[in-house]
Every structure is written in structure tokens, then in C-alpha cells.
Amino acid sequence: MIMKYEHSLIEDIQNIPWFNELTLPQVEQLAAISRVHQFQSGEELFHEGDRTDFMYVVLSGQILVENYIPSLGIHGVTHADPLDVIGWSCLTPMVRQRIATARACEPSSLLVIEGDALARLCDNDHDLGYLIMRRVANIVASQFLATRLYLYDIIQHSSQVVSRSNLPQT
User: Where are the beta strands (DSSP E) in 11-168?
Assistant: First the structure.
């Protein structure tokens, strides 16, 4: 039974394009520090301010990533769909806590990878580390752009509300 589970986990990892360039021994090492977890609709994966402990790859379902914005409250920033990676900040040593909250929008299956163990794997196998960090850099850049556009939208919306409130009364 354990072999079937491990084989299934290895297949799950091999089916993720993010890991296509990994060798079988590297996939096996990754499988040793990973598991597949099912999240129910509304269940929280992590909360803003939590310790950064895991990285997640969405296998099925959808995850809402949200932030608390002072004076505006909690806002959904993005959705993570199948094959998206969230929780990458566990690989950035300067970030020690979650910068967002993530919760399942619907029943979802995620590959859960232990962050500290993944960082050690990257340190010990520089080819693996280069591949992972190159992909994390792409995620960070795209999320930075998406967040920037979202903030522009918030600023534009709030300035329109202010402009309308300053209109002369007739």
C-alpha cells in the first residue's frame, strides 16, 4: 500500500510542468518531503502572518489568495488554479511569515511541500536549486505585476469616489 502511494505521488509530481526537467532521483527526493492534501471549500491553507512552512502546487480546485488592506479590509488579490504555485515565500529567507491568506474556493487537491526541507534540497543539489529558484523568480515577478495592477485599480477606484464626493451640489 505504501509503494502505491509513493508511486502515485511520484506520478503527481512528474505531471506538474514546473518539475519537468527534474531527474527521477530528484523527483523521488521531492516526493520524500511532499504529500497530497485535500482541502474542503472554505478551508484555510494558511493565514497572513503565519510562519512560512510549506509551498503548495494546486492539483485540482481553486484557491483564493487574499490580503488585509488597512482601511479597506480583506480583499481577494488573486485565484490560484491547477498547476499554480502558492506559498513560495517559504523559499525566501528574509520572509519569515505569510504575506497573504489562502483558502479553498471549492474542494481542492494540493501538493504540499515542506519548505525547510525543500530549501535544503536546493542547497544540496544546485541543479535542482537553480531550476526551483528560477521558477520561483518568475512567479514572484508575475505576482508583483498582478499586485501592482490590482493596487492601481484600487487607487483609481478610490480617487473616482473622492472626485464624485467633491462635486458641487446642485
Answer: 34-39, 44-46, 54-60, 63-69, 73-80, 85-86, 101-104, 108-114
Per-residue pLDDT tens for 24-58?
A: 999 999 999 999 999 999 999 999 888 889 999 99
The amino acid occupying position 159 is S
CA 122, CA 22: separation in Å to the nearest integer? 12
Domains of the chain (ranges; CATH) run: 2-156 (2.60.120.10)
Task: Kindly state the cell numbers that stand for 96.
Answer: 519569515
Query: What is the distance between the alpha carbons of residues 157 and 69, in angstroms, rounded to a whole number?
Result: 15
Q: Are 83 and 18 in contact (CB under 8 A)?
A: yes
User: CB of 122 within 8 A of CB of 71?
Assistant: no
Summarised one tens digit per residue, pLDDT across range 97-152 is 788 899 999 999 999 999 999 999 999 999 999 999 998 888 888 877 877 887 78
> How far apart (Å, rounded) are the C-alpha atoms in residues 96 and 70?
21
Residue 132: C-alpha distances to residues 64, 85, 110, 122, 168 (Å) = 23, 11, 18, 8, 56
User: Which phi and psi (to 5°) does residue 111 adopt?
Assistant: -80, 125
Closest CA to 86 of 114, 63, 120: 63
The reply to whether the predicted model has a pTM over 0.90 is: no
